[in-house]
Every structure is written in C-alpha cells, then in structure tokens.
## 1
Amino acid sequence: MMQTHMGKAQVDRPSARLSLAYIWVAYAAFGLAALAGMLQGMVRGGLIELPSWTNYYQILTAHGVLMALIFTTFFIVGFLLSGVAKTTGGSLHGTALGLGWIGWILMTVGTAMAVVTIVTNDASVLYTFYAPLKASPFFYIGAALLVVGSWFGGFAVFSSYRKWRRENRGKMSPLFVFMSVTTFVLWLIATIPVAVEVLFQLIPWSLGWTSSINIMLSRTLFWFFGHPLVYFWLMPAYIAWYVCVPRIIGGHVFSDSLARLAFISLLLFSMPVGFHHQLMEPGISPGWKMIHVILTLIVVVPSLMTAFSMFATFETTGRKKGGVGLFGWFKKLPWSDVRFFAPFVGMLFFIPAGAGGIINASNQMNAVVHNTIFITGHFHITVGAAVALTFFGVSFWLIPVLTGRTLTPTANRMGMVQTVFWSVGMFLMSYAMHYLGLQGSPRRTSFTTYMDHPLAVGWLDYQRVMAFGGGLLFVAAILLILILGYLTFFAPKGNTEYPTAETETEQHTPKILERWPVWLGVLVLLCVLAYGLPIAEQLTHNPPGSPPFRTW
Amino acid sequence: MHLHRYEKIWLILGAGGLALFIVLLCVNAFAMGMAPPSNMEMIDPTKVSETPPFDNPGLKKISDTEYDAYMTAFAFGFNPNKMEVPAGAKVNFHVTSPDVVHGFQIPGTNVNFMVMPGHINSASYTFEKPGEYLILCNEYCGAGHQVMATTIIVK
Ligand SMILES: [Cu+2]
C-alpha cells in the first residue's frame, strides 16, 4: 500500500509495529540481563555479597538466558523481518504478518515461563541446562516455546521470499532476503536436535514420566544446536555488515555472489561441528572429535571472505571520496556516525575473537582453556562485542525507521559515547577474563579463594578488573536503553532511510547459489556423516541412565 | 563468479595456512599421542560407591615413579581429599561422578577434563616440581560449586 500522505515510508505501519514489538522485548530482556551481569561481576570481584534471597548461579542463569537466548533471538527476528519487508517492496503481506505475530506471542509466553521459573529459583541450571541437573518442567517448556515461536518468524521470512520469487520470476532475490532465508534455514535445522532433546528427553524426565536420562546423548544433541546457535547470532550481524554498512558509508556491496557464497558456506560448515564443544568429554573417540575439529576450522574460510569484502568496500568508498595513498581512504570513513562506528568497532573485536575461537576449537590447545573463564572472555568479545555492537548500531537507525522518527545529532553523539563505554568495558572485562583463564581460573564459579590457596588469591586483582569492566558495561546498557527509548517515543518525526546497499555494476550471480534443494542435500549429508555413527553409538553403547538431581 | 586477484591471494594464503595447521593438529593428536581425554569406559552412576576400584578411592602405586589415582567427583567435593606423591611421579587420574557433571582441572598443567556420570575419564601428568597443586571443579554443579576443590601435594 502506498502511503502518499506521509511521504514514502521505508517499512509500512503494520510491518513496523511487528518488528518494533520484537525489538522492544529484546531490549527489555537486555536491560535485565545487563543488571544481572553487572551484579555477577561485582560478586566475582569480591566487592559485594548478594542478599540471602538470591544467589550467584540464579543471576548467572538469568544473565545467560536473557542475554544469549532472549535478547538475541527477539532482536534477530525483528531485524530480519523489517529488512525483508523493506527489500521486498516496503511491506510484509498478510500471511507473513500473521506468522510473525504468532511467533511473537509464542516467544513472549515462553520467555515469561522461563523468567518466572528462574525468579522462583526452580531453574538455576544456566542456559545450557545440562542434565542431570533438573529444572522445573515449565523452564524447559518455556525454552521450547521460545524456539518454536522463532520458527514462525522464519516461516514469515520464507513466505515473503516465496511470494517475491513468484512475482519476479528468473531474477535473483534481494541480498538481504537471501541472507535472511539462509539464516533461518540454519536456525530451523539447528534447533531440531535441541527440540528433540527438550521434548523427548528433558520434559518427560523432569515431569517424572521417565526415571533416567542418557546424558551423553543429551549433551550431543545440545551441542549439535549449540554451535550453529553462535552463527545464528553472527549471521544477522554479517547481514548488517554486508548490506547495511556499505550504504551508510555511501558505498556499494563489494560482490553479490561472494556474499551469497559466504553465507552458504556458513550454513554448511557451522552445523556438523558440535563435538569441538565436547573435546574434553569421555565417550566420544578422538577420531570423531578430530573430524569435527577439521570441519570447525573450515569456517575460517568464509570469515576470511567476509573480512576481505568489508575492507574492500571501505577502501573503494574511501578512495572515491578522495582518499589517497596507502591508507588515506581510511580517514574518509564517517567516524562520527554511530551507525558506522558501532559496527566497525564490533568488527575490530571480531579479529581477536576469531583467533581465540581457533584456540578453543583446536584439540590440544583446548585443554589449557576448556571451561576456564577464557571461554567467557571469548564469547563476550564475539557475541557481547562484535554482534551486540552491530545490533546497537542497527538499532540507532532501525528504531527511527520503524517509528517514523529521526536520529538527531545529539542522539548520535550519545550513541558514540555509549559505544565507547561499551567497548572499553568489554575490552577490560574480556582481557582480564582471557588472562585469568590462561592461569586456570574457572568459568561459571561464584567468588572463591579455594580455602585461600595462593594461586586463587593471586587471581583477585584481575577479578576486580573484570568487575570494573562490568560496571562500565552496565552504565553503557542504561545509556543505550535511554537513547532507544528517546528514539521510540520522543525524537522528532521524519523519514529515516533504511540503509540497504546495491552492487555497483550489474553482476551475474551463479544461479546455483539459490538452489535450496542442493544446499539442503549437502547439509543433511554432512550432518549424517558427522553425527550418524556417533549418535547410533550413544544410543546402543550407553551406560545406565542418570536420575535427576537438584543441587541448588 | 568473479574473484578479485587480491582476494584470491588472500584466500590461498589463508586456506593454505589453515591446511598446515590442521595437519599439525592431526600429527599432534595421533602421531604424538596427545589426543584429548576421551576415555570410553563406562560405569553405573547409581552404583559408584559399590563398584571397585571406586568403592575405595585413592592412590594405587604402580612403581616408584608411577601412580594410579582413582577418584570420585561429587557435589561438592573430591574423594580422596588429600593425596601425596614424590616429585617426578607420573599420576594417571581416573575419575567418575555418582551425581551430576563435574569438571576436573589442575591449573598450571594440561590436566583438564569433564567428569560425567556413567563414564570414567582419565588423563596423566608427570609432576616434576614440588608444591601443593590445586584440583578444582570447573563445571557448574550446584549451589556449592565454588568450594569444590582438593589438592595434591608433590614432595
Ligand atoms: Cu562440581
């Protein structure tokens, strides 16, 4: 529908309302999660003690669930739906809108169930809910609703994609849509194993219908999902890097076909790799572990492609604006525009994050850092910095687009301050975490000196640095919510552009990249090869099962 | 599909480096015998305290320089609680859990593995330097997780 009376909206009202509903649940969860995170940092630094009605592991569960599962999933569904609406003509059709709202309702109900069980201390099992720790069945049901709800977000994207292709026969789909479809294909397939775990193992067992559980199998199913989950966070950030950031700096997409190829590779190689999270576990032979290690490391290739594309776009754009010499183009980039600055800082964080990831995934090196706070430091610079800063950068323009308002220069400046606070906080905290992890300090552990063991006492100074970083992050989180509240309700009315870049010249993207049956076939084959035999083994040669335990 | 010349170079160098790295990992794991702890032995988790040798956890001397340490990791401690070995001794740790999943880590060494109910996991380490080594649980196991630790004294 044309909205001639109020200028050309980038996304029509019904679609905008849907996206905004997702994004605000995301930021409500983010705010609570940030509070829980800050308190954890303070406890671990030995600066405060929690009141008797709560405990460290309860707020750790809240932080993990709200930040890693709820904030990310809601934001991603909201962001991708908005971009699909924008790039397929400015609106979602009736079916897609309906699916989108069903998803939102299921996810919100699931979130409420999870939060209530965490608050009543019936689910202090952390967001990885490892059996045989047994949470309230409502916690698992809530998690299942969250996942199933997000599938409906994916169905909404697929239905828009199908409609677009019907109406534009023979044409390549818009890059944003293609990437959103890839992201949700990954998500749908990746969540099947965890759905199996929750529905067939955890829920019946936590309700008492079955007396014991095959732990090895539950962990394998969890990590079958748990690693692609990381790519479900990362790919929407990549979409913003590939499609939105080039437009913000006044440039073009470097190469349409390479961008699509990178996404297909991410889809294929992020799935059959879960054993690299289980390298230090018994019951999986070293051969299978090595196969997953190799497949994991192959993901380095699409990451290298992405790095090249990003910097190629930056350089071409900078040169076109008159930047000369080897690095002159660098100065021509819009450093004072938070829509560019925040995701750019995120990209910088991703460089050490990738290096850390290689360490974690590598067999023997993993023994040094496994389950130490190094791991916590690692995912705080991947998800907490690279992905989160990109999502913040997106929010600064997406919320004005959706509310029909504008990002004022003052709000932009506040956003810059917020980005700096978040980055410095994240840098200090994760630096301390990486350092402590290499000394052997464990993750997921409340304040302790292990009966004043000199080694553990020596960790205290760095734990205080972590706490200080956490404090800065909390300030940045509050500031962010204030800015986003302003952009939602108070910023001046106006038209804000939804930045989506095109390629500079007509490019011929190979048709094969859009043949889904081919890629799904390859993916299923890879998963069967990587998981078929080990899972068959875990089903047949498994030890007697475990009864449930509540140890908190 | 067009690949920029610099991109080709970039990807060839990257993928080549990666391939070399993978070969080194394989050599390290299989030729040099440094595969991660992947013990395949199983045990009934509800009968750990009745199953030898875990019915009587502790150090078993193999020779003057080698010991087997049979240990259980439970919420929230390790059994045995104190162990003493001479400097230069190689200790083979064999650990299982009668309840939930725990971690087993000795900071400053490469001993770091998961202890899962139903399985026995193991790793070896030669303690060259005397001292009091901390053994801690690095997987969340409940409200008292932070106190779950013990020591091994090397004299
Ligand atoms: Cu433990």
Note: Residues 1-6 of chain A have pLDDT under 50 and may be disordered.
## 2
Amino acid sequence: MNDATLIRKNLFRKRLRAVLLTISILIAFLIYGMLGAMQNAFSMGTEGAAQDRLVTVNRINFTVALPYAYWGRIQQVEGVRTVAPASWFGGYYQEPQNFVQSFAVDPESYIEAYPELVFQDDQRTAFIEGRTCAAVGQALATQYGWSVGERIPLMSNIWQQQDGSQAWELDICAIFDDADGTYPTNYLMLHYEYFNESLAFGRDSFHWIAITTEDPGQNDRISREIDELFANSPAETSTTTEAAFNAAFMEQFGNIGLILSWVIGAAFATILMIVGTTMVMAVNERTREIAVLKTLGFTAPRIFRMVLWEALLLSFIGGLIGLGLAALAAQGASAALAGFLPSFGLSWTNALTAIAFMVALGLITGMLPAWNAMRVRISEALGKI
Amino acid sequence: MLKQTTAVTLLNLRSIPQRWGMSLATVLSIALVVGVLLGFMAMASGFRATVDGAGSDDVAIMLRGGAMAEMNSNISRDEVRLLEVAPGIAASPGGEPLISSELYVVADGIRRASQTPANLALRGLGLHGPDMRPQFDLVEGRMFQPGSAELVVGESVPREFEGFALGDSVRLGNNNWTIVGVFSTGGSVFDSEIWTDLGVVQNLYQRGSSVQTVRARLTSPDAIEVLREYVENEPRLNLEVLSERAYFARSAGGTTNLIMFLGWPLAIAMAIGALAGAWNAMYASVDARTRELATLRAIGFGGFPAFIAAMVEAIVLAFFGGLVGAVATWILFDGVSASTLGSGFTQIVFAFAVTPEAVVQGVILAMIVGFLGGFIPALRAARIPLLAVHND
C-alpha cells in the first residue's frame, strides 16, 4: 500500500461527502467554462483583428455614411496597400427576426484586405465576376442550410430599391471559411455595385472602409494622414486600427466582462469556503489516525504532502469534469447561436487558466488542514482515549 | 411533544456559536448565491422598468414597413402630410393634430466610467414632441429654440456621460451645440437621449425633409385600430402602425431575456454548489452532537424533535444567508447606474433596481437550499441509536 492508495482511501472514506464536494467544485468550473466561452464570443472580433488593418469611419459616428470618392483618395495615401469599402445592409431572411449580418462590398478589394478568408478558387472567381453573387460565411450557411448555387431573396430593413421593394435576389456563389478559426464567419457579402445602382436613397456612399497598410509601424502616420485629408469637409473621418475599433464597439454593450468576472469570483469564493471548511473538518476527524501514522514512522512533511494531495485530487476530479461539461455545453450552444455570436467555445487559454485555478483551489483548501495534520502530537492525540 | 421539540430546537440553535466555522461558511455561501441571483434580477428589472416606462398605450408610432427599429425607418414628407389628416389622432387646443415627426442621428458621448465613446441618440423632434411623453418635465433651464443649435438633454445623460451639464457647449459631429435645458421623462428610455429641433437635425446632417418615425397622440387607446385601417387602405403609405408600448416591448424583450436566462441558471447552478455546503455543515452539526442527541434519546426524548431541531437549524442558517445576500445586494447595487447598447444602436441608461419581490424570491431560494441541505442530516439525527452515547 503506497501513499497514493492512502490518499484515495482517505478522500472517499465518506462517500457522500466526497461526492457533494466534487459536485460543488464541478459546478464552479462549469460556470467558469460557460462564462469564459461567452466572454470569448464577445471579444472574438478583437482577437481576430489583423495588425496591419485600419478602419476608417465617419467621425460623427460609424452609422453615418462616407462619400464614394473617398475610396480613390485614400488609395493615394503613401503606405496604403489595399482599400476595401463596405456598406451595412441590415439583412434578414424571410422574417425580420431572422437577422443576417450582411454588407455590400467591392469583392476584389475586400478579399485582398481579408486574406484570412478561405475560398475555393473557382468559387472566389465566381463571386468576383457574378454581379448578383453573394459569398456566405460557413457558420451562416450552416445556420440557414444554404448551399452554393441556391438563389435567395435577402430583405433589407434599411434600404429600399427605386421600385419600393426591399428584397435583393442573390445567387450564392461561394461559401467561405476562415483560415485559423479566429475570425467569425457568420456574415454574408454581396456586390456593392449591384446594391448601389438600385438604391432609392443613400447612393454612392459607404459605412466603413477597411485599409491594409504595407507596414504596421506606419499605421499611426497613415491614419493621421487619412484623417487630415478630409478635415473640415462635410464628412470628416476617424481612422483607427481594426482592433481598437472592434474593442470600442464591444465596449458599448457595457461591462459584460466585469459582470462575468464578478459571477465567476462569487462562485469560486463559495466553493472555496465549502471545500475549505469541509477539509478542515475531515482532517480533524482523523487526528487519532494521523497520530497512529506518525507512530508508525510517517514523517510530518510526508503527512503534510498526503493531505495536500488529497485536496488537490478532489479539486482536479471536480474541476476536470466541470470543465469537460462546460466544453460540451459550449459546443451545443455554439450550434444554436451561430448566427448571432461567432464561435462560442473554450480556448486553450481558458483551459490552462482553469487548471491553474484547480491547483490554486487545491492548495488553498488543503494548506490549513495539512498544516494541522502535520502538527498533530502523538501523545496528545492518542491521549484523548 | 411540542415542549420536547422546542427544547431541543433551542438547545440546537444556542449551540450554533460553538460550531461557528462551519455555520458561517454555510451562511456566506448561501449569501453569495442569493447575491448573484439578485444582482441579475436587479439588472433585468432596472432595464425593463426603463424601457417599459417609455411606452404608452395612447401614443401610436409609425415606422416604414419591415423596419423593426426607428433607426432603420424612413418616412417621406408626403407620407407625413397624409398622416396629419388621419383619423383617430387627438387635436391640440389650437386645433392642429398632435403629431410629432422625429429623426435621430447617432452622436458620440464619452462615458464617464470607462472614458470610452458610446453612441447617444440625438433626436430631432417637433413642437408636439414633448406631448407624446406623458411624464415629460423640464427639470432645469428652458426648451430649445426651433431652428437654433440648442439641446435639451435627458437627466440620465449628464450622469453617465461627460460634458452635458446645463450651459455646457458640446461638439457633436461637425457642429457646436449649447445645452439649454435638462428634462425628465420619469426614468424612461428617453432620459438617455438628447433632443433638439427636427429641422436643425435635417439640415446639419443632410437628411433633406425625410424623417424616421411619426408619433401621434390618439384620442383613445382603441383609436389605433381606426388609424391602422386608414394607413392600410391608403396605397401611398407603406407604414407599420404600433402602439408605443408594443413597440418598446418588442425591442426590450431580447435584452431582458438574455439577462434573465443567464441569471437564473447561474443562480441554480450555484445553489446546487451551496447545497453541498449546507449538507456538509448540517452533517457536521449532527456529528458534533451525536452523544448529546443520544443522551436526550436515552432520557426519553423522541426522534421527531431531533429531526425538527436539525431542520430548523438548517433553515435558520439559510434564512440568514439569504438575508445577508439580499441586504448586501441592495446596499451595493440598488440605484447603480449602467448603460448598454439598445435596439436603436444607441445607449440606454438604466438603474439597477433591487425590488422587494426579488428579495423575497432570493430568500425563498435560500430557504429551499437550506431545506434540501438539512433534510437527510436531520433524518440521521432522528435515528441516532441510543448506544451512540458510548461512542468515543
């Protein structure tokens, strides 16, 4: 019989208690995992943002349009590699509730600006060449069950055509994915030209312009030069890095991150108290046994380690099951929410942090009882009889 | 029997301080569970109160068909003219129809808490605009002058955003504005908005003569049917007619549900965790008094009083936990101001509201945890064999 067996036997001597503790730890890590996955979904855009990409929007606000002519003028700025303008389409499919994130783009420049989007070669060509073509992200295509070759009417809740209709007929020519899974693919792109020429109002304008630069080191200079170009014009611009733009947008939802951290903190504090007091109690019950072990020649540090390992083992059993359940649940939720939130899942960072938390939980809840156990005096403990 | 029960229960409760470590842990963990639940409920009810308070039944709002939100809507001058003569609309003392054509653009405000820009609604509205908001009241200063770059701001705006105090001059987009008044609409969503004259917004933001929505005060809530029929039978109008209450209920549903659907599952998950804590604490409590209980049995006390005593102990601990959690949430969160992005792409400022109903629900949740956590240990307390008196 080695120490590991002893630790295991000690942990499960009161089966009900061990199961209850495991469940409470499991729940703490389940909450941690689910909220972590949600936080990932909200910060996705920031992580997926490329270093060399800038976004130009109207200085008033990104909901106000920019004139068509800016496309060409920004192209002239030194250090600018590609300029890809886009307009918000406000699309929905069949029912207004079926929101489809969609924008009108110039296909060639857009694909150049977003090299992380993966197209099959023939589909890319088809999308660029076909005026009524749309390219659909994999996540969105899965959500509505669309496939290449289908023709869909996409309604807009903003734009109207000259004949008063709000539906644009689109051919799905391409389904794109992203290269490394960090960029959301829950949107649809249609041809700017096709969109623009039938508009009843608001023609020849863009909502934002994505710019790639030749060298990220030049980003500051380039954004300044672009904004100076349009200073004191009716449509002044504001140019920032894509990451800063996305972060500022998410910031508007309020302190989601802060609230999530509070909840996780509360869950952990609860569990820490429960596990901690129970461990102290469990070890106190064993005072006499520990004295016997000492009599048999177990050294104090060895007993200290054994009790600490017991706490760590408990923390890991509960924690790993909880994390596993959270990963499964996140996968399920991800399928259901594909259209709204980009991939909703646990990252490696989450998993590693959770493991660090398991170690910390085990150490904190094990330290006091282990210390008590180490200091048990044989004479006193056995004298209690 | 009753005497016995009371005696054992009191004995039990009085001895709680001797087991304070375990008991305190139970109380605190239940308090945290209740705190998390109430925090979410306070957020949801604060948000709902703000958005619901905005809608009245006798105001109709008209948007372009399929627009879903004001932001996406677009109504031409000709359509507004047709609406001015529509039936079912109340008239002002001067005899004109009580109608307000409105257009809003999004402006940037700097949020105090995070120093980051956030979208504010700059709403242009006509003379009768305030008449559409029953609780409208000018708290400070005066109303804007039509045709000038003057603003009145809702009372939540200066609280949550920088630079919007009375008398301040503020730059929005390419224009300088002066703040001449602060208004209140009784805590509704309009309190997060900035108002000015419709014509000024149309000019400065190059919107021509188009507007987004037309609000109309109805002669009675039922008159909306008359108005709707008129709009449907008029081929030149492609509009959706909704009561303002229905419009806001539609736009608030998503966010409130999100908050609630997150809050309850979390609280229940945490409650299961706390259940384990309560269970352990009660087992410890019963264990600690094995001999005592056996002695009581030996001198003629029944098992039932022991059961009741343990249950009462568990429920009392849970009740205190619930109370501590509720009071802490109330002190920390009641009235805290927060804002989030609403359906119109602009900020809605709302205050957390810890309601008495929420407190009651929280305490009930706590007591359920206590009841479930205490039940099995209490059964055990009732079944302690007489011979346990010799244990140890």
Note: Chain B touches chain A through 56 residues (CB under 8 Å).
